[in-house]
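Please study the protein below:
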Amino acid sequence: MKRINFIFVFCLISQIIVSQETLPIYSDYLSDNIFLVHPSAAGIGNCGKLRITSRQQFLGVKDAPSLQTLSFHNKISEKAAIGAIIYNEKNGFHSNTGFEAAYAYHLNFGTYYALNQLSFGLSFLYLQNKFDQRSFTSVIPDPAISQTIESTNYYNFDFSVAYHFLDAFSYFTIKNILLTPRKFIDTKFETLNLRRYLLTFGYYLNRNNSFQLEPSIMGQLIERTGELFFDFNLKVFKKIKNKHQIWAAVSYRKNFEPNNIEKFKQISTILGINYKRYMVSYTYSYQLTSVTINNGASHQLTLGINLFCKKPRASGCPNINSLYY
């Protein structure tokens, strides 16, 4: 039975990876890194943000999925901003190395004391996909296949809109607008419709109290399969002295898919600390479904530094106002 469960989950994860083909969407956006999923967040705050993440899934399982990202975004003028993401993803015989460049434009309708901002973002992704067959084994070995590494390059685009009003925020992003086909995959069996729609809402509470709360929700809709994901999030902040802060977050992800396969459920907990302009956080994610690989746990470490900071605005959630300035 365990073998059957393993095969089922392996096939499920393989389908997820093949259908994504771009930067995977985990809970790392909650580590003050919402730019990873919404290009309109580029330069949206009072600081430029440099972030490094390293994620490892299913510890103890050989060739389990892993992901590393390096991202930076900052304003280049009062209204314009740019950002970039470099990432490396590996899952068994497959690996992706990608570069994403983003441009955002922010329209401010409010004042210093009353934030009212509409933002637009567009990102371009260039990605190299590799399929390593050198470790394949079969009953009848074929040297022509077993010693090859297939590789191809392709590109994609994302479009994003954001709106901030006082301490409320919202984002809408269309990912994978245009995908070029991969040369080593038979396009008869691969769809080029990888569009995914992301919608995020949140609110920052108790700004003047000893503890602050930030409830939020993010929905994902995969156009091709009709599958729907929801993240239900809650972050808690505690300011220490003048420029230090500790914070924690919990996120519950659940899918609603039309084929009645076992539902995907995952809970993530995040613990972070901001010390002056530096940030470090640790994320632990665990699958709640009955069918898992090994212990179903994932671990992620995020390191960050805020650069070129300006005075924060009187209103706005933490992705608008960094603690340090």
Remarks:
- Residues 2-20 form the longest helix (19 residues).
- Residues 2-307 form a domain with the Porin fold (CATH 2.40.160.60).
- DSSP finds two helices and 14 strands in the chain.
